[in-house]
Amino acid sequence: MTTKQLPRVPFANPFVRQVAVVAAVLISFSAQVQAQPDDATAILKRMSDYVAAQKTLSVTFDTDTEVVTADLEKIQFNSSGQVQLSRPDKLRATRLGGYADVELVFDGKTLNVLSKDRNKFAQVDAPGSVDDLVETLRDKYMVVLPGADLVLARIFDEMSGDVVVAKNIGRGVIDGIECHHLAFRNLEVDWQIWIDAGVEPIPRKYVITSKSVHGSPQYTLRIKQWRTDVSPDAFVFKPPAGATKVAIEALSGIDEVPPGSVATQGKK
Could you report how far apart the first and last alpha carbons of the chain are, in Å? Predict the structure, then answer.
């Protein structure tokens, strides 16, 4: 059987040549992604098991939060902070950004939220585990903690439960550390994670891209320091001198971005 030959078209147009090159690169990249020997879900499971097995954690981080304005302009807001954890029911988190300086302390019974820049704090009863606290903040107070799934006891189920596509992109380097670069998709967001390729599968970078917000803004979490020693005193809340106690609803404006902005705030 004779195969019909398509007419040859010389690449006289530079744009046509550029399109051909880009297409070749994309085809090559797709083949490389599919050829990765380690399954993305298996690497994520190793990381999840390792993190969940740590009884105490102390982590410093930087974040970048993109917003899309009414004029369809992307603006990025930045902050830094620390998370200290003692499983199953103790958590301390601080975050300093350009618009808020916030501290959260949880001892298994009471949630304390301090707005340092306004010297105001709130206290609410919240008995249970850290996992229960994250769920309560989300469902009762409509407060989503981006990246909080990385410290949950059920981390793997939380991160992989709604995944429809998982890819091992290959290797990447974060702060000089070689990492596995993984990409996942669900119906609402795309998310990527870079996991230390060494003996300890520590998460080093986490990027969440919202597909449900126009402009697809991103939230980026970069873990700077990872330690497993935490002082028990870290979970004792002491209001600063002169601090005013208020209802938690009065502590508005302590988000990572100024009020009125539209941003991606979490994976779910």
Answer: 54
